[in-house]
């Protein structure tokens, strides 16, 4: 087994998921947190989750749940957490000033070869780490919730990030069973959320204009597009739905443009409260707010099964 150590800064939801992923691949994983009591909860939380996954047949990597849990430790000392670590995954709350402060602290304590990755969902490395002594070792490695079962990681280097670090993080993500994609430059929203927003835009517009019910809009994705997209992406779908993507464009581009000219709102009026309230009312019986935790657990269970299915691809 690999005897290398990684440091996880912040032991909340995302920190715990990273810890389990690294431990599954054999890494010694040290979590650090500033909140009293949180580390204990995180250690118990990861142990319980690993045990549950083992019972259900969802455990990843090498060793038993017990062995993997033994690889995860916790400390209230940042120095101790970083001691001997070659890779740091920052997972503190999404707040620019806080991330800047944490990266200044990390910068002062790490050696020249230590890679510093942020889990940030929308802050870029150039906003967080510009000017630090080790800024060439900093990038964003953005996971998708729940990371243990959704493997995508968006790797987003700053202009100052060393290309060598990008390659190393990509390789590391593969080594722990994740699926990295690399953005060639920083951009607002990274990549996944841009696609997600484009999708939400059309869903919102279709609901607002009374074309479909909320349930039917979601069914369109879960029973239609999503079935495909778990295995073949939009571009390969084009390729398969004609005699290659070039043929697809020749056949269908005109139609696609007509549909978009007719239906797409240039800047959709998004997330307006009246529409959100209406959708929430539609769900008053099937998915009231108090049922959300149960539904999230169900989602994670289904994603676990899908992730198992995909591993047989
Ligand atoms: P969280 O609130 O669950 O956990 C954050 C943890 O950081 C807490 O335990 C807190 O005590 C700790 N913390 C606060 N200040 C600290 C400091 N100075 N040093 C060390 N620890 C500190 O948050 P989360 O959902 O795990 O999100 C963490 C990061 O991951 C955010 O940047 C978020 O945008 C990103 N992210 C979240 C999701 C998601 O779905 N939750 C998905 C992808 C990325």
Descriptive notes:
The protein is an alpha/beta fold and 313 residues long. The protein folds into two domains: 5-182, Rossmann fold, CATH 3.40.50; 193-282, Orthogonal Bundle (N-(1-d-carboxylethyl)-l-norvaline Dehydrogenase, domain 2). The chain is built from 13 helices and eight strands. It has an eight-stranded mixed β-sheet with strand order 3-2-1-4-5-6-7-8, sandwiched between helices. Helix 10 crosses helix 11 (245-263). The structure holds nicotinamide-adenine-dinucleotide. Nicotinamide-adenine-dinucleotide is lined by residues 9-15, 32-35, 38, 91-94, 102, 119-121, 142-143, 145.
Distance between the termini: 26 Å
Topology as H/E string? Answer: EHEHHEHEHEHEEHEHHHHHH
Bound molecules: nicotinamide-adenine-dinucleotide
Q: What is the CA-based Rg, rounded?
A: 22 Å
What's this model, at a glance?
With 313 residues, this protein is of the alpha/beta class.
Entry keywords:
single chain, 313 residues, Rossmann fold, N-(1-d-carboxylethyl)-l-norvaline Dehydrogenase, domain 2, 8-stranded mixed sheet, 8 strands, 52% helix, globular, binds nicotinamide-adenine-dinucleotide
Fold blueprint:
Layout: E1 5-9, H1 13-24, E2 28-32, H2 38-56, H3 65-70, E3 72-75, H4 78-82, E4 85-90, H5 96-109, E5 115-118, H6 125-129, E6 138-143, E7 152-157, H7 163-175, E8 179-182, H8 192-208, H9 214-229, H10 234-240, H11 245-263, H12 273-282, H13 292-311
Parallel strand pairs: 1-2, 1-4, 2-3, 4-5, 5-6, 7-8
Antiparallel strand pairs: 6-7
This protein binds nicotinamide-adenine-dinucleotide.
């Amino acid at each position: 087994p690999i005897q290398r150590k990684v440091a996880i800064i912040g032991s909340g939801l995302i920190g715990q998921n990273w810890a389990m992923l690294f431990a599954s691949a054999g890494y010694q994983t040290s979590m650090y947190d500033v909140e009293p009591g949180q580390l204990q909860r995180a250690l118990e939380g990861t142990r319980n989750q690993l045990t549950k996954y083992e019972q259900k047949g969802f455990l990843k990597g090498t060793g038993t749940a017990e062995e993997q849990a033994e690889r995860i430790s916790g400390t209230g000392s940042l120095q101790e957490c970083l001691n001997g670590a070659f890779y740091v995954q920052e997972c503190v709350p999404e707040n620019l000033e806080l991330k800047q402060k944490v990266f200044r602290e990390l910068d002062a304590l790490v050696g020249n070869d230590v890679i510093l990755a942020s889990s940030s969902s929308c802050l870029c490395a150039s906003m967080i780490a510009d000017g630090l002594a080790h800024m060439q070792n900093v990038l964003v490695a953005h996971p998708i919730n729940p990371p243990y079962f959704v493997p995508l990681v968006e790797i987003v280097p700053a202009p100052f990030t060393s290309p060598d670090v990008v390659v190393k993080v990509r390789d590391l993500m593969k080594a722990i069973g994740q699926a990295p994609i690399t953005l060639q430059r920083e951009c607002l929203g990274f990549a996944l959320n841009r696609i997600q927003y484009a999708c939400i835009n059309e869903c919102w517009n279709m609901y607002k204009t009374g074309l479909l019910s909320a349930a039917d809009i979601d069914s369109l994705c879960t029973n239609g597009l999503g079935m495909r997209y778990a295995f073949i992406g939009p571009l390969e779908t084009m390729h398969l739905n004609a005699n290659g993507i070039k043929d697809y464009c020749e056949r269908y581009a005109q139609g696609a443009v007509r549909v978009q000219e007719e239906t797409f709102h240039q800047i959709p009026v998004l997330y307006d409260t009246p529409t959100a309230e209406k959708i929430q009312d539609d769900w008053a019986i099937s998915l009231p707010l108090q049922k959300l935790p149960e539904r999230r657990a169900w989602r994670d269970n289904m994603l676990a099964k899908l992730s198992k299915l995909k591993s047989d691809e």
